[in-house]
Design the sequence.
């Protein structure tokens, strides 16, 4: 995407610069009109039109697949996240575990985060795992994520939420399936 | 009916388009709030059907108006230049409105309405 | 400059100068002339730009290195909020409106804007609103919740100080200025173009400004409503955005972005207008695709109102709805692409010369196209979920705003400098300024895309070391300072040119449009006689036009009556319809703006009695303002040296500028009302804890009784207008008094409803919205009564009657609007819940 964008930018700027330094053309009025119309329809409508269709055809289904729709097979793990000034409260409803500012997840398994807020609007985001979702008072939004590799990740609030916004960080640890089960056992008395 | 060279034609196509857009987004929101269709049905729900029909009707009306302005622009070449200017421009506005309606409306055919 | 003198010409100039001339000294505060006010707008906007820039430099210094302790979180939050607010509301919009105020009358061959006092009023509101807002920085109480002020963060619970109030009240004050200036520009462009300037001969810049102004008229009211609601919630506890009591914070986001996205195009359109004006001049040929460009302007104006949700892709709305907005956001790229290629084609088929303004236009192209491309990426929903609210977005928005507004603006400033000063800018220093700004800008913001992709959220006052964000931030900060030096160079260049610039020849860039047919610098009246316009490029086809204008060979070269006059023409064909008499200098705009300033400060201080007094005084003065109109002797003079049987003066017509002004005002008003309706239905369907009582708290029958006098009065005044059109005006005064009395009866019933209805506006959002509806109806009714009574008085004075029906037609429109909103409210607030079944 970035390469294509850079090429488009170069092409447009290149054309402009060429138009500026070209030896002045010597066309009659009708030829000029024809050239003008060709530029406008070609560059202004056809090229961007096609690009848009391609982007949408590719982007909308992609976005659709990221939605938390029902899936066949193993049900996604449900984790509840409550954002508040300025910390993250995490709850594993299936296991009765709670923690603050620390999130442990199984790698390789799909997880549905049910995100809510106890005061102002925040946004739940673990950049290396995927998109973000806002935590809005009065609603629960669901975000589906999956960590393919075990490891340490960093989550951070992405919607400005007041004085502590910059420090509203969430430590995320993805464990492989076995390690996650041991962790769960250790947490549940 | 508004004459093809009436200055209001410069906005009418896109005003109708705006109303359609509000109806599309509003209809979807109200539909999902009142009687959300089952998510398993995918895009084959009554709500999608309704929105698609609305889109098709709006687009058809816009295309019809486009044809009207376009014909007037081609036939009445003896109009005052500023009238012809409006007629041609209005045809363009209707074309834009029709295309926008179709492009924005297409997702109705493929996506489930509420999730 | 060096024009040949002739005795007739000198006498005409002297006469016009006596009528139009601007006083000096402290009386200059009463000036209403558009050239003066346009320059004041721009000068003031420049000062605010510097303040916003200093805040930006403070932020960049803080972010240069990780874990800095230069600014604390509180000040940083105030700084970015104020930077964004100042740049958007105090710099970009007023600067461009100022440019339009200065240029539009000259480009369309008019002598002034059609509501000169409104220009002055707009300026003073802007100045005082800006001062109130900036003062908060010095009080340490600046708004600190971001330029979009999301609730509940900005509500009383989480921001107990008056920080948010400064924003809500200050910005609303400034928006009054933006909207009133926009109304004036619309009417001027439509109704006061010079003889023969039909729509298809209008300069493209005027099309752009028409588009921008209509977008302001439709786009600002949602935010004005939002601000009123939020301020009501903060000051009086009405819970529009409080979930627990049936409100919803997301409603604020809708209202804000309903304004906020069009705002971006409001800023871009006039800047693109500058580009479309300059490119043909420097390519020495007419623009390619005039009609395509006009089509793009209209399309942009509408499409940009359907994108607002793309700022809210992460709040969890249905994916299908996101797809609509995603598609619409991408579509809007097409009209922009059309313009870019129309400019390219113009250069391609022309003989371009590379002068200093052209350099800035190339800079514009590079930066803006890059910003547009990242914009298309952001419209892609999955990508948006990733980079939303990161520094990627900060980079994108600066590419669009600086590229799409600042670069063309500087190009335009250089281009029109000779018009203001009569001197040419230097090419040397100017080039240094350009390259420093351009390189500094890209250094700052290009790498910031990368910072965002690395995961740095926006609006953080500091960050930890070791996340990979250190180096890119340092580069950005260095680039920021390079850019600041560049901008300082540009300003220095402009300042020096006033003293050292070469004296400009007439029409120094060999332009085609009428603003260069005035002298440089121009006289207060622009044109000694208003030219006939027979082509899209008057100065290219008639290079000697300026001489004819100065010698009084065209329209209105006659000033014996001692009044300010400009032509009123048909909006489509540009054929001359009437002569507009314009009011002269006045202190009222300044005094009323001061009154409003007192009101806003009193609201800030929560001393409501003072606020109410100030508001009443301002309204009284506005009525006084409206008194000097039409046939008032200050404007009208029967013995005037006007040839009999020629053009009518506008008070004698049914379709003067005032009617158009009222029409556009009602458009803005309708946008506000529709936003309120939207809020009502939105809360009804979406608010998580919406509580509606089983039966409406409003008594349906009593309201119907209220409707009787209102409907009768409106029908009555419509009948009066019909009869005026037929030339009869018997008992006009009595009838107008009767209408006012009916209006009072309506108000009485409405007040009765308000008192008796079991409303508890502080307990549920449902009742709060209803209270706002009732307040809206009451205000409109009160104004309608006052206007009718005032008409009656004017009939008695002989200012209004069958010979001068101009004002009654305007008042009738207000009554009709009042009636319409009453029935809409009735349908939506009383009938709709009943039909819903009270569920
Ligand atoms: C034409 C001029 C400019 C305009 C219209 C503009 C506009 C804006 C806006 C609207 C914001 C968003 C504020 C918010 O998130 O609440 C912003 C943020 C920011 N701008 Fe500018 N800006 C301009 C010039 C600059 C310059 C010259 C710099 C620095 C060299 C700069 C640096 C920043 C920074 C650092 C932020 C803060 C980001 C954050 O903390 O989230 N801006 N600007
Ligand atoms: Cu936050
Ligand atoms: Cu936007």
Sequence:
């Amino acid at each position: 995407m970035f390469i294509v964008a850079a090429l488009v930018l170069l092409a447009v700027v290149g054309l402009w610069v060429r138009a500026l330094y070209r030896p002045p053309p010597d066309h009659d009025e009708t030829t000029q009109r024809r050239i003008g119309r060709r530029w406008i329809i070609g560059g202004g409508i056809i090229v961007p039109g096609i690009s848009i269709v391609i982007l949408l055809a590719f982007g909308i289904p992609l976005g659709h697949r990221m939605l938390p729709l029902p899936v066949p097979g193993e049900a996604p793990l449900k984790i509840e996240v409550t954002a508040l000034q300025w910390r993250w409260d995490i709850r594993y409803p299936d296991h009765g575990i709670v923690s603050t500012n620390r999130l442990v997840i199984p790698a390789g398994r799909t997880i549905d985060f049910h995100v809510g807020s106890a005061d102002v609007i925040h946004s739940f985001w673990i950049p290396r795992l995927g998109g973000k979702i806002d935590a809005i008072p009065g609603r629960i939004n669901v975000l589906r994520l999956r960590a393919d590799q075990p490891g340490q990740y960093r989550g951070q609030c992405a919607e400005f939420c007041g004085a502590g916004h910059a420090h509203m960080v969430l430590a995320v640890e993805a464990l492989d399936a076995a390690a996650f089960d041991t962790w769960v056992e250790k947490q549940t008395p | 009916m508004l004459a093809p060279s009436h200055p209001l034609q410069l906005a009418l196509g896109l005003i109708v388009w705006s109303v359609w857009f509000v109806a599309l987004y509003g209809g979807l929101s109200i539909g999902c709030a009142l009687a959300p269709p089952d998510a398993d049905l995918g895009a084959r729900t009554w709500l999608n059907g309704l929105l698609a029909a609305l889109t098709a009707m709006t687009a058809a009306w816009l295309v019809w108006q486009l044809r009207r302005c376009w014909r007037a622009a081609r036939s009445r070449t003896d109009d005052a230049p500023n009238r012809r200017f409006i007629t041609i421009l209005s045809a363009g506005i209707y074309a834009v409105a029709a295309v926008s309606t179709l492009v924005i409306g297409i997702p109705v055919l493929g996506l489930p309405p509420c999730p | 400059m060096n024009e040949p003198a002739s005795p007739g010409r000198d006498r005409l100039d002297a006469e016009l100068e006596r009528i139009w001339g601007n006083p000096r000294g402290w009386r200059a505060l009463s000036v209403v002339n558009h050239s003066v006010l346009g320059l004041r707008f721009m000068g003031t906007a420049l000062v605010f730009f510097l303040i916003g820039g200093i805040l930006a430099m403070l932020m960049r210094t803080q972010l240069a290195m990780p874990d800095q302790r230069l600014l604390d979180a509180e000040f940083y939050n105030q700084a970015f909020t104020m930077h964004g607010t100042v740049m958007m509301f105090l710099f970009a919009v007023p600067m461009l409106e100022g440019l339009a105020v200065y240029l539009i009358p000259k480009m369309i061959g008019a002598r002034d804007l059609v509501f000169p006092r409104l220009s002055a009023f707009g300026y003073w509101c802007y100045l005082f609103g800006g001062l109130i807002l900036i003062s908060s920085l010095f009080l340490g109480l600046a708004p600190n919740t971001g330029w979009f002020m999301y609730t509940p963060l900005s509500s009383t619970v989480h921001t107990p100080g008056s920080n948010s109030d400064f924003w809500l009240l200050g910005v609303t004050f400034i928006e009054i200025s933006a909207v009133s200036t926009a109304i004036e520009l619309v009417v001027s462009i439509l109704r006061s173009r010079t003889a023969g300037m039909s729509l298809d001969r209008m300069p493209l810049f005027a099309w752009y400004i028409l588009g921008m102004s209509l977008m302001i008229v439709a786009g600002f009211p949602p935010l004005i409503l939002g601000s009123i609601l939020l301020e009501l919630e903060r000051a009086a506890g009405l819970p529009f955005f409080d979930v627990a009591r049936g409100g919803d914070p997301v409603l604020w986001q809708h209202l804000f972005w309903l304004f906020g996205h069009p705002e971006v195009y409001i800023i871009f359109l006039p800047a693109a207008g500058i580009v479309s004006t300059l490119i043909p001049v420097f390519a020495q040929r007419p623009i390619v695709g005039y009609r395509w460009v006009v089509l793009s302007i209209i399309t942009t104006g509408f499409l940009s109102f359907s994108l607002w949700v793309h700022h809210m892709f992460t709040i969890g709305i249905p994916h299908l709805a996101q797809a609509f907005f995603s598609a619409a956001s991408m579509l809007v790229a097409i009209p922009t692409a059309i313009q870019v290629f129309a400019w390219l084609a113009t250069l391609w088929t022309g003989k371009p010369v590379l002068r200093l303004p052209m350099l800035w236009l190339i800079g514009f192209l590079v930066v803006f196209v890059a910003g547009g491309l990242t914009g298309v990426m952001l419209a892609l929903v999955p990508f948006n979920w990733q980079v939303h609210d990161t520094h990627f977005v900060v980079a994108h928005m600066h590419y669009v705003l600086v590229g799409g507004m600042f670069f063309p603006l500087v190009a335009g400033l250089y281009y029109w400098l000779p018009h203001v000063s009569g001197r040419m800018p230097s090419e040397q220093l100017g080039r240094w300024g350009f390259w420093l700004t351009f390189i500094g800008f890209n250094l700052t913001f290009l790498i910031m895309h990368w910072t965002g992709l690395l995961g740095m959220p926006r609006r953080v006052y500091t960050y930890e070391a070791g996340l990979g964000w250190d180096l890119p931030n340092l580069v950005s900060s260095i680039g920021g300072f390079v850019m600041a030096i560049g901008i300082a160079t540009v300003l220095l260049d402009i300042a020096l040119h006033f003293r050292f610039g070469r004296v400009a020849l007439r029409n120094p860039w060999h332009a085609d449009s009428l603003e260069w047919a005035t002298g440089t610098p121009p006289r207060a009246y622009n044109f000694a006689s208003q030219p006939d316009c027979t082509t899209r490029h008057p100065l290219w086809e008639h290079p000697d036009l300026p001489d004819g204008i100065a010698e009084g060979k065209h329209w209105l070269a006659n000033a014996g009556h001692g009044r300010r006059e400009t032509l009123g023409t048909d909006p489509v064909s540009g054929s001359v319809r009437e002569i507009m008499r314009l009011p002269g200098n006045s202190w009222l705009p300044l005094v009323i703006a001061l009154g409003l300033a007192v009101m806003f400060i009193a609201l800030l201080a929560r001393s409501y009695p003072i606020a109410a007094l100030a508001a009443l005084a301002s309204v009284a003065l506005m009525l006084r303002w409206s008194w000097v109109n039409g046939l008032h002797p200050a404007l009208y003079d029967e013995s005037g040296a006007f040839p009999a049987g020629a053009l009518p003066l506008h008070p004698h017509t049914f379709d003067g500028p005032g009617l158009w002004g009222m029409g556009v005002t009602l458009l803005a008003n309708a946008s506000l009302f529709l936003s309120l309706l939207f809020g009502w239905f939105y809360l009804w369907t979406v608010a998580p804890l919406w509580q509606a009582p089983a039966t409406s708290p409003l008594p349906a029958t009593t309201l119907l009784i209220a409707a009787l006098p209102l409907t009768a009065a409106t029908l009555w005044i419509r009948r009066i207008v019909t009869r005026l059109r037929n030339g009869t005006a018997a008992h006009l005064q009595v009838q107008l008094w009767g209408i006012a009395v009916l209006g009072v009866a309506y108000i009485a019933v409405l007040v009765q409803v308000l008192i008796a209805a079991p409303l508890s506006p502080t307990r549920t959002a449902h009742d709060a919205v209803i209270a706002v509806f009732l307040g809206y109806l009451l205000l409109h009714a009160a104004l309608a009564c006052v206007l009718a009574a005032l008409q009656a008085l004017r009939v008695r004075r002989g200012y209004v009657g069958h010979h001068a029906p101009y004002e009654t037609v305007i008042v009738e429109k207000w009554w009709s609007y009042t009636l319409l909103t009453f029935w809409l409210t009735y349908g939506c607030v009383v009938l709709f819940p009943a039909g819903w079944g009270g569920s």
Q: What stands out?
A: Strands of chain A lie at 77-84, 87-92, 97-100, 102-106, 111-117, 122-125, 132-135, 141-145, 151-156, 169-175. The CA atoms of residues 116 and 135 of chain A lie 5 Å apart. The pocket of copper (II) ion (ligand 3) is lined by residues C 261, 264, 307, 310-311 (CB under 6 Å).
